[in-house]
Design a protein that fits this description.
Layout: E1 3-11, H1 12-24, E2 29-34, E3 53-61, H2 66-77, E4 81-89, H3 94-99, E5 105-107, E6 111-114, E7 126-129, H4 142-153, E8 160-164, H5 170-177, E9 182-186, H6 190-202, E10 209-212, E11 222-228, H7 231-236, H8 238-244, E12 245-257, H9 261-267, E13 272-280, E14 283-290
Parallel strand pairs: 6-7, 8-9, 8-11, 9-10, 11-12
Antiparallel strand pairs: 1-3, 1-4, 2-3, 5-6, 12-14, 13-14
Helix pairs in contact: 4-5
């Protein structure tokens, strides 16, 4: 059965009001998109940014009176609506749809991320079975890809590894499969911890990986720490990371835009030597060791 979509272009001041109105009018879901190719960078804590020119999409059942809904919105928010249009969204097998676009990915010499619907291209390689899910981290984003490549180039054999901001658990699982003796996966999102446990179990490394929130006790300084989060949290965590990473231990920091790299590097100058740098597109990974 097809669905109906109602797309409304508006300003950011009216976006939440129109979103609430769509829900009241029977919308099954509401999504926001950038209508003018305006980049949004990391917001201050507690702030949810929106684009100056925002496209809001409401999804409705096929038998909805979309014309009446459009008229109701236009009457109430006419001065704030730049454009409004409806369109049919054909029903699809959405699982099969994403499967067509999610292929195995290769990192380093023999590390692969393999979706469940694929046979591993190299069964003898280190294969991580992973599908897109509730938490960030499938290997498709440059920040994750660089972390995976870094781990593959610096396998943490017999080491204690901390994955700070574990998301899907992809880096924790990679560390475990690359020979880590113990991995501690930390995240402030309960969904991420659930995803990490499920993915670790699916990959046969649940016994190696411990999951916990940001207050999870670290038993001893780690030999290796990876953190794929954002620049400002990385800056604020520099002191903590110096405490939980042993002298001589390795560190990899990702989730950093090119223009933020110097700011992050400066925050780590006292306790770390960040002498390694990778870049994909606008994103940077900084690596080095604890002094």
């Amino acid at each position: 059965m097809p669905w109906l979509q109602l797309k409304i272009q508006t300003d950011k001041q009216s976006a939440d009001l129109i979103s609430d109105a769509l829900t009241e009018l029977g919308s099954l879901s509401v999504t926001y998109e950038d209508a003018a190719d305006q980049p949004l960078f990391e917001p201050p804590p507690g702030e949810t940014p929106l684009w100056s020119d925002t496209l809001i999409t409401g999804l409705f059942e096929a038998d909805s009176d979309i014309d009446s809904i459009s008229q109701a919105l236009t009457r109430q928010y006419n001065s704030h609506i730049t454009a409004i249009r409806s369109e049919i969204l054909e029903d699809k097998d959405w699982v099969r749809e994403w499967m067509q676009h999610y292929e195995p990915m290769h990192f380093g010499h023999d590390l692969w991320i393999v979706p469940s619907h694929h046979t591993p291209p190299n069964p003898a390689a280190i294969n991580i079975l992973l599908d897109p899910g509730l938490a960030f981290g499938t290997g498709t984003h440059p920040t994750t890809a660089m972390c995976l490549s870094w781990l593959a180039e610096h396998p943490p054999v017999d080491q204690l590894v901390i994955d700070y901001g574990c998301g899907s658990g992809i880096l924790a699982i990679a560390a475990a499969k690359l020979g880590a003796a113990r991995v501690i996966a930390i995240d402030n999102d309960p969904q991420a911890l659930l995803a990490t446990r499920a993915n670790a179990e699916n990959n046969g490394v649940l016994n190696t990986i411990e999951c916990g929130g940001v207050d999870y006790p670290i038993p001893e300084p780690a030999d290796c720490l990876v953190a794929n989060i954002l620049a400002r949290p990385l800056v604020s965590l520099a002191g903590l990371f110096s405490e939980i990473c042993r002298p001589g231990g390795t560190i990899a920091l990702s989730g950093i835009l090119q223009e933020q790299a110097e700011m992050v590097s400066q925050a780590y100058t006292k306790q770390f030597s960040l002498n390694g740098k990778q870049q994909q597109g606008d994103w940077v990974l900084l690596s080095g060791h604890r002094n």
